[in-house]
Amino acid sequence: MSEANYAHNVSYLDYKGQYKGLLGWIFSTDHKRIGLLYLYTMLAFFSVGAILGLLMKTELIAPGNTLMGPQTYNAFFTLHGIIMIFVIVVPGLPAVFGNFFLPIMIGAKDVAFPRLNLLSWWLYVLGILIVLTSQFLGDGPPDTGWTFYAPYSFRTPANVLPAVFGAFVMGFSSILTGINFVVTIHRMRAPGMTWFKMPLFPWTLYGTAWIQILATPVIGITLLLIVAERILGIGIFDPALGGDPILYQHLFWIYSHPAVYIMILPGMGVISEVIPVFSRKTIFGYKAIVLSTMAIAFVGYFVWGHHMFTSGMSGRALYTFSFLTFLVAIPSAIKVFNWVSTMHKGSLDMQTPFYWAVSFIFVFMIGGLTGLVLGSLATNVHVHDTHFVVAHFHYIVFGGTGFAFMAAIHYWFPKMFGRMYDLGWANLGWGIFFIGFNTLYLPMFFLGIQGMPRRYYDYLPDFHGGNIISSLGAWVMISGIVIIFANLIRSARYGQKTTEKNPWGGKTLEWQVDTPPTLENFEEIPVIEKGPYDFED
Amino acid sequence: MSQEKHHIVSYKTHVFVLLALLVLTALSVAITRVELGPLNTAAALLIACIKATIVLAWFMHLKFESRFFTVMVSAVIILFLLVILVTFFDYSYR
Amino acid sequence: MIEHRDDLASKMGMWLFIFTELLLFGMLFVVYAVYRSMHPEAFKLAGQELDVVLGTLNTVILLISSMTVAMSISAIQKGNKKLALALLTVTLIIAVVFLVNKYFEWGTKVEYGFNPGGAELHQLGHGTILFFGLYFVMTGLHALHILIGIGLFLYVFWQVRKDKIHQTDYIWLENTGLYWHLVDLIWIFLFPLLYLIH
Asked: Which of A112, A188, A221 sits opposite C13 (nearest CB)?
């Protein structure tokens, strides 16, 4: 960076730095390249996680041992959970699209600490590698589930330590990204971009980054205590030595519930970007969305107990957490109203990103409303640890974050790669995915209400019907994923080249820079005068 | 843009701050020698909080930074206290 | 092209990092609070096993080191490199002394079998096991932070010597100072909660 020996108009994809080829990527501190590094890593591991999920669903297509036995099934859902939660959805949107677009959207040339940003990616990869060693070394892959509940996590002979430590390292990476984003947003907004002229995706990243900073250390120390428990036997979570396993659950969910908001908030941000652009209308209730974002971030910190309604907490804790959980539904609902109102009387442009955004609202509603079923004490006790819970959180985590991720990549793809994907295939992929997704997860609600417990490789014959539908849905959904990925990967290499700056007619800053963006994004830092979604002129 | 005015804390102030901290340390050791029941812990914690505030304000320069830093620190402390409060909704009523 | 430099951004980043540390230790304090509320008597008795003299000594020297590092920032701001280096040396020595004290303190505990899994400890009941489990985890994690602090001080010392840190560019020293005060801050609470229960 110290030598001004490159042309300013070189695309970030083409510039030649100190290193060439692959090294030019993995040692690049450019926020756009780092964003793509995350994207490729996630693509690889999402495929692994999805295949594990598919195999589990296939196992469940009939009662009894179809494909695998109980221990393999336990190992599969543990690895599926660890990959999908820690590798994909927690870093997901912030690490890929946050890295790529946050600086551009606020009119900056990079994040505040580019080298720290690269370090985050390195730690992330290191964490993944450590987790993977747990599969091959020691006494077999971990079988605890991604929650590592005490006391089983230090009693099982399986190789839990690397998985726990890997998750710890990935947490560290997440913290560094959070620090980077908060400082970037505070210090590097373009002149004239006041807080309330900042687009909504950066706003949600801001809320997310704060949760990353303030919640991730909690899981850090919790995982360290599990490590200490396994190695030294300190007794803190071990009932045989006086420890309280429920305290483990408290600490675990003090992080892991806010982590759900780390996953979903940036998704909401993406939707808030896509909806106004494809409705050709200013977003409805900009400030309400901003404030509800921060409200979700704050209140979401204090609702962790609703994961523990059957753990044996005190009665007062039960209804306190139930009440707080209902509170957090309010700002989420406000957002849905705002999106729908934005579309109202807009001139809708039916394109792939918009399909994803609208279907996001649909699945998010189902996930959110079933969340209220789980948030109320009485119904929770009935469906706790059944497939109802599995269906609910897949609607939120996969339906919410996943659909938003797809909306994001179809929305920003031309800007990122300077090439266009095939719209026909993209729409077809969306359709198949959407049908498969609902066929897969909707029956699980009914199975759960009937009483089918989660995390078993086997079930009673009564549950057979729903499971057949659900497992077939899994295959349909995977076909959709294959179409979407094939289309995007092919288009990134061979798609129609485009240098058009603003294919969708967006108003935010990323649509005013070159396609693909130049190394420094802006030749001159822009001066902001108008709000981010001014479609009125 | 990086060179805002910096407040230089004098050596003398540092020495006074240290003396205050040492006196408070001695006080907290002394007070726990006296039997006050549960008040012992309360007193020791109160003194620790005062010491922490002094360290934050002078050694960590919060007193001389923009107010935003103080707001952030206070918010984090409040968040932490709320977490303790909510946790004890469970443990106080088991 | 001049390297973009924003000291306030760096300082803000450091503070955010400090928040993560506060919550990291904060959760240990939550664990402590929960178990102490369950086993008040055992915690009281176990706390009396700790060496108050050694604990107080470590508190005092850690406070002094906090002052010396704060002073070294003032010294750099005034352009007094020699004094800054001297003060950093004192800080470093204190950090090492702190660890030496800790070593002996831990050594005694292990000798009497109070370490996790120790023979003596397991005869003393749940409260005592939890207290010493927490004692070793909390002071251990704190000692790890001291160790990292020593590494940081060595780096900063070297940078001051090479004039990489000087009167107009001392953010590394300032952030290292913030880190060290954090370590002190944690100890300010560890000390009464572990050593002074009566």
From this structure: A112
The CB-side HSE value for C171 (13 A sphere, CA atoms) comes to 15
Percentage, residues of chain C above pLDDT 90: 87
Residue C118 binned pLDDT confidence (cut-offs 50, 70, 90)? confident
Rounded to a whole number of angstroms, the distance from the CA of A162 to the nearest CA of chain C is 20
Q: Tens of pLDDT along A372-408?
A: 999 999 999 999 999 999 999 999 999 999 999 999 9
Full DSSP string of A52-116: HHHHHHHHTTSSS-SS--HHHHHHHHHHHHHIIIIIIITTHHIIIIIHHHHHHHTT-SS-S-HHH
Assign B80 to helix, strand or coil: helix
Which residues does chain B have within 8 Å of residue A294's beta carbon, measured at their own beta carbons? none
Closest-CA residue to C196 (of B32, A486, A171, B78): B32
Residue in C17, C7, C12, C13 with CA at minimum distance from that of residue C182: C17
Amino acid C123: pLDDT = 86
pLDDT at B37: 80
Low-confidence stretches of chain A (pLDDT beneath 50): 1-5
φ, ψ for residue C72 (rounded to 5)?
A: -65, -30
The answer to whether residues A332 and A292 touch, using CB atoms and an 8 Å cutoff, is yes
- Within the 89-148 window of chain C, which residues sit less than 8 Å (CB to CB) from chain B? none
Closest CA to B86 of C23, A302, A245: A302
Q: Report CA dihedral (A464, A465, A467, A472) to the nearest 10 degrees.
A: 130
Separation in Å, CA of C82 to nearest CA in chain A: 31
Question: 52-71 in B: which are within 8 Å (CB) of C?
Answer: 52, 55-56, 58-60, 65, 69
- Scan residues 114-143 of A and list those with Cβ closer than 8 Å to C: 116
Which has more confidence, B1 or A218? A218
Confirm if A271 and A357 have CB atoms less than 8 A apart.
yes
The Cα-based distances of A429 to A395, A432, B84, C182 in angstroms read 19, 5, 47, 52
Please report the pLDDT score of residue A138 as a whole number. Answer: 76
**Nearest to A311, CA basis, from A245, A372, A364:** A245
Nearest C-alpha of chain B: how many angstroms from C25? 11
Q: Identify which has the larger pLDDT, A204 or C3.
A: A204
Q: Give the model's pLDDT for residue A469.
A: 97
Query: Which class for C89: exposed (0-12), middle (13-18), buried (19 or more C-beta within 10 A)?
Result: middle
Contacts of A495 (CB under 8 A, 6+ apart): A417, A419, A420, A421, A422
Q: Where is pLDDT greater, at C161 or C115?
A: C161
The whole-number average pLDDT for the span B46-59 is: 96
Contact B21, B51 (CB under 8 A): yes
The pair of three-digit structure tokens given for residue B29, joined into one six-digit string: 């050791």
Contacts of C184 in chain B (CB under 8 A): 55, 59
Residue pair A439/A469 in contact (Cβ under 8 Å)? The answer is yes
A241 part of contact set with chain C, CB < 8 Å: yes
Interface contact B89-A314, CB threshold 8 A? yes
Burial of A502 (0-12, 13-18, 19+ CB in 10 A): middle
* Residue A66 Cα distances to A69, A217, A337, A459, A530, angstroms: 8, 41, 45, 12, 60
Nearest-angstrom CA–CA distance, A19 and A9: 19
pLDDT at C171: 94
Taking only the tens place, the pLDDT of each residue in C90-115 is 999 999 999 999 999 999 999 988 88
Q: Who's near A275: CB < 8 A, 6+ residues apart?
A: A283, A339, A342, A343, A354, A357
Helical pair B11-33 and B39-54, crossing angle rounded to 10 deg: 170
Would the pLDDT of C77 be above 90? yes
Output phi, psi for A515, to 5 deg. -115, 120
Is A518 in a helix, a strand, or coil?
A: strand
